[in-house]
Amino acid sequence: MSENHQVLFRKYRPQFFRDVIYQDLAVGSLQNAFKSKKIGHAYIFIGPRGVGKTTIARILAKRLNCENPDGVEPCNECTSCLEITKGNSNDVFEIDAASNSGVDNIRELRENVKFNAMGGKYRVYILDEVHMLSGAAFNALLKTLEEPPAHVVFILATTEYHKIPETILSRCQDFHFRKVPVTVLQNYIETLCTKEGLKYDTEGLFWIAKKGDGSVRDTLSFMEQAVIFTDGNLTGVKLRKMIGYHGIDTFTDFFNQLIDSSQSAQIFETLENLFQAGIDLGKFIWDFIEFLNSLLLIKDNLADRESINIPQEDLQKLKQNYRELDREILVLLAERIFSIHEKLNLMKLRSSYEMKVYLEIQFRKLILDREKPSVSGLLAKISELTKLVQGDISALPDNVEQVKKQIPSQTASISTNQKDPKLAGSQTTNETQVSAKQKVESQSNVNGNLETNAMTQKTLESNKAQPSANPTSSEEEMEKLLKEKFSGMEVDPNQFKNL
Length: 499
Ligand SMILES: [Zn+2]
What we know:
Number of strands: 7
CATH architecture of the largest domain: 3-Layer(aba) Sandwich
Order of helices and strands: HHEHHEHEHEHEHEHHEHHHHHHHHHHH
Radius of gyration: 37 Å
Bound molecules: zinc ion
CATH class of the largest domain: Alpha Beta
Strand content: 5-15%
Number of helices: 21
Strand order of the largest sheet: 2-3-4-1-5
CATH topology of the largest domain: Rossmann fold
């Protein structure tokens, strides 16, 4: 398999600039250099793995030494071109800096650059993974870059730009390579399928392109495996099986089980079925987190083939059915499941059975949290009651007026009468005095209650500010207390606020 595995990637490795996909910026600049005959002595190719850095370095080396170049392209037919393609040119040196990172390796290189090119015009040094060089090796390289012999061209390639010393960068022309988008990869492998006579469908190609994660090399490597696994039939159904994608229905079912309390018991059935089928439960949970995130992206109109791991057909289904979901519920649920997954990783459980037990406990807890009346539900109720009580107070002046009518005119007002010295000798009747006094006491009680409520609310809010995954005992006590206090009242469980 490993022999075949290399074949596809090597077979379709671009030999001309024009065959390289998606790196127009870098390729265009290099072609312009040939057009204007301004060849630099040091280039640095920066970008993720497998997007064509080494491939383009070789095409550049070929074009530099080509005996019959065709405009900006090498001929790929002359001795020099053929030798470079085969990897046995005496003028092109590919050095893996990761395994030749020492200063001695670079010193040796410095000795070699003095010699003239054997067959071609240039000696080309391609230093792959150049960020792996030691500090001393970089210094040694710098001396060569400062005064390069006219017949030498350096092509440095790296995936980690920030690890290259500024002194080196300042002496190189930099070219940036980009990750290849899924759609571009998908179109590219479709042309390969046609050339290879492979059967395929859009979803099958989508999964292969997705697996490549922006890298042409990785895409073709995975395609090679997929051809073997599916016996040359690259369909979505077969690819799903190969990569262990459960299909959108599994996730939507699981999601419904989590948000609908009447389906809670089925959560455990789902986990058991996955376990029995030998599915990696950790991966399932991660995929489910991705699914929730996709739902959020759909809400924000940010979901497309590049941003999410869901085939086009499934994406359409989700857009139709889940766009109206409550964002808060989604975020809370995603956070909760994420924390379960995080703990799962930390625990380093020994077997899939232990993993299943752990998940069962965690999901049981999640269901319990979901179903008990939430603190925020009670808070909403308190706020309602507070408004109600405040409404009573605002109604007070009317009552006061009524009381005043019963009280002789000397009584200025109920709220100030205790402070008013004139009232000390007032001729109010005992009856009205008692009535007024009761009212004042009643008002005072109302104020007292309000203060208590305000304090309760404050305490609750401060409790709520703490991480809610594990309700503190004080939170539980408070909840118990409030339940007693408001027993008989209808309290909105506001379920997911409690997750
Ligand atoms: Zn040639």
